[in-house]
Fold this sequence. Notes:
Layout: E1 2-4, E2 10-17, E3 27-34, E4 41-42, E5 50-52, E6 57-62, E7 68-75, E8 84-91
Antiparallel strand pairs: 1-7, 2-6, 2-8, 3-4, 3-5, 3-7
Amino acid sequence: YTKHVGAYDDFYITVYNNNTGGSGNSIDVKIYYSEDGTTYFAEQGYTTATTITAGSYNSFATSRKHHFYRAQINSTSAGNHNDFTIYYNNVSVF
């Protein structure tokens, strides 16, 4: 998931591990930012993957004014992927 957020003051990403398949597997999340939409850097606190267990979530919030954000989701169990939902909110103060 990649989103241009250059005009907003605050940006929120919540990743929810739905586990609708009943596999019970976790997913790994990393958050990146970019100024040009091509070169991405790991966001502070996400330089290593954050693991989300089945039925849980991870929330990221920032007021840093980067132009792009990206959420990278990986399964922790090859061949037994869980589904997930990404919720986001862009907020402008003005």
